[in-house]
Write a structure and sequence with these properties.
8-stranded parallel sheet, TIM Barrel, binds flavin mononucleotide
Length: 409
C-alpha cells in the first residue's frame, strides 16, 4: 500500500537566495556528473577535442527531473579547460557551451523549476591529456597510490595512464588569482545564461577541498600551513564570486569528513569550522549551504567510514556544528537518503532540505514517488558515467511511475 507523505516537511515551501526564490518542496536533485556531452570539435590524434557542450540529451535529462517549484543542481561544470577532469563533461567557458546550457535552463524553467550551476575545478585529480597543460594543484604532491589509473584512456588510445606518472605543479600566486578569475567569468556567464544561481563544488577532493586538506596542501605561504591559511583560497574565491554575482546567488557544497580523491586531512573540525564561521561572517546572505553526511562515502561502506571517524576521535560526529554556525542560512544535506530514511529529518530541524543523487538518477519522478510512497526504481551503477556507445542508456530511459498495478508486481 502506498503511503501519503504529502504532509511531510519535505513538501513544505522553503525560501532560498535570501528570500528571492521560494521552493515549493525540499527534494533537491544532487549534482551528478554523467559525461553525456557532445564533443565541440572533430577530434584527431594531433588535435584532440578537449571541450564538450550540452546537447538534447541533457535538456531531456534535466527537464525530466524538473518539477514546479523544485530545485535542480547541475552536474559539476568546469569553469575552464584547466579545470576539466573528465571527458564528456560540458564546461561553461565558450559561447557554444553557454548556448547549450541555455537550452537546459529554458526547459527547466518552462516546468516551473529552478536550476543552479555547480562550478568544479578538478585540480590534482586529473591528467594533462585532458587539459593540454600541466595539472595545477595547491602543492606538487604525487598521487599516493602508484598504480591507480585515471579512469578514462587519453584521447585516441585505449591504454589508460597512471595518475602518479603526472604529478601536479604547485600553483603560483598568479595562477591562484587567474583560476579564481576563471570561476568568476564562468559564474557571470552562468547568470547571463539564465541559471538561478551558482554552487561552488567545495567537496569531494577537488581543487578547493585540496586547498583545505593538509595531506595535499603542503604550502608554506599564506595559502597553507595552518587550518586558517588552508581556508584562504576558498574564502578568496567566495569573496570574488560574491562581488561578481551577489552572495544571495551563490552557494557552496562541503564535505568536511570526506575521503574521496585521496583527501586524508587532519584538523578537520578546526579547518572546516573556521571556514564556515568566516563564510557566515563575510557572506550572511548566501543562497544556501550544502553538506555531505559524515558517514557517506563513495568508495567506503558506512562501517569502514565509521572506523575513520573513530580513528579521528569523532565517533559520534554529525553536521550540527556546521548547522549551528550557519544559523538561518538554508542548510542541505546529502548521502544515502531514500524512501525509508527521509522522514522526520527536516521536522527534527537537522536540515532544511535533502539532496538526492543516485535515486534521482533512476527515478526521474522521485519527487512524486516520495510524496505518494510509490516504490523506487533501483539505479544501475555501471551506467552512471559516460561516454557510452549510446549515451541515452541509463540517462533518460528510467521509467516514470505507471500506477499501482505495476508497482505491486
Ligand atoms: C554518478 C555520480 C556522479 C556524481 N557527480 C557529482 C558532481 O558532479 N558533483 C558533486 O558535488 N557530487 C557528485 N556526486 C555525489 C552526489 O552528488 C551525492 O552527494 C552522492 O551520490 C550521495 O547522495 P546519494 O546517496 O543520494 O546518491 C556524484 C555521485 C554519483 C553517484
Amino acid at each position: 500500500m502506498a503511503t501519503d507523505n504529502s504532509q511531510s516537511k519535505l513538501f513544505q515551501p522553503l525560501a532560498i537566495a535570501n528570500g528571492n526564490i521560494t521552493l515549493k518542496h525540499r527534494v533537491i536533485l544532487a549534482p551528478l556528473t554523467r559525461n553525456r556531452g557532445t564533443p565541440n570539435s572533430h577530434s584527431t590524434p594531433e588535435n584532440p577535442n578537449r571541450i564538450w557542450v550540452p546537447n538534447d540529451l541533457l535538456v531531456e535529462h534535466y527537464s525530466q527531473r524538473a518539477t514546479d517549484g523544485g530545485l535542480l543542481i547541475t552536474e559539476a561544470i568546469p569553469p575552464s579547460l584547466e579545470g576539466n577532469g573528465m571527458p564528456g563533461v560540458p564546461g561553461l567557458f565558450i559561447p557554444e557551451q553557454a548556448e547549450g546550457w541555455k537550452r537546459v535552463v529554458d526547459a527547466v524553467h518552462a516546468k516551473g523549476a529552478y536550476i543552479y550551476a555547480q562550478l568544479w575545478h578538478s585540480g590534482r585529480s586529473n591528467i594533462p591529456h585532458m587539459t593540454g597543460t600541466p595539472i595545477l594543484a595547491p602543492s606538487s604532491v604525487p598521487w599516493e597510490d602508484p598504480n591507480e589509473y585515471f579512469k578514462h584512456p587519453p584521447h585516441h588510445t585505449t591504454t589508460r595512464v597512471k595518475f602518479a606518472d603526472y604529478p601536479p605543479s604547485e600553483m603560483t600566486i598568479a595562477q591562484i588569482k587567474s583560476t579564481i578569475q576563471d570561476y568568476c567569468k564562468a559564474a557571470k556567464l552562468a547568470i547571463d545564461t539564465g541559471f538561478d544561481g551558482v554552487e561552488i563544488h567545495g567537496a569531494n577532493g577537488y581543487l578547493p577541498e585540496q586547498f583545505l586538506s593538509s595531506n595535499v596542501n603542503r604550502r608554506t605561504d599564506e595559502y597553507g600551513g595552518t587550518p586558517e591559511k588552508r581556508c584562504k583560497f576558498m574564502l578568496e574565491l567566495m569573496y570574488e564570486l560574491s562581488k561578481t554575482i551577489g552572495e544571495e546567488n551563490l552557494a557552496i557544497r562541503l564535505s568536511p569528513f570526506g575521503l574521496f580523491n585521496q583527501i586524508r586531512s587532519i584538523q578537520r573540525l578546526e579547518t572546516w569550522s573556521h571556514l564556515c564561521r568566516e563564510l557566515k561572517a563575510n557572506h550572511p546572505k548566501l543562497s544556501y549551504v550544502s553538506f555531505i553526511e559524515p558517514r557517506y562515502e563513495q568508495l567506503f561502506s558506512e562501517t569502514e567510514k565509521q572506523s575513520f571517524l573513530d580513528s579521528w576521535g569523532l565517533p559520534d560526529v554529525d553536521l550540527s556544528l556546521f548547522r549551528k554556525i550557519f544559523g538561518d542560512t538554508p542548510f542541505f544535506s546529502a548521502g544515502g537518503f531514500n524512501d525509508t530514511n527521509s522522514w522526520g529529518v527536516l521536522e527534527r530541524g537537522d536540515y532544511d532540505a535533502l539532496v538526492y543523487g543516485r535515486y534521482f538518477i533512476s527515478n526521474p519522478d522521485l519527487v512524486e514517488k516520495l510524496r505518494n510512497g510509490w516504490p523506487l526504481t533501483h539505479y544501475k551503477r555501471a551506467l552512471f558515467y559516460g561516454p557510452l556507445e549510446d549515451n541515452s542508456v541509463g540517462y533518460v530511459d528510467y521509467p516514470f511511475y505507471e500506477g499501482d498495478v505495476k508497482a505491486e508486481l
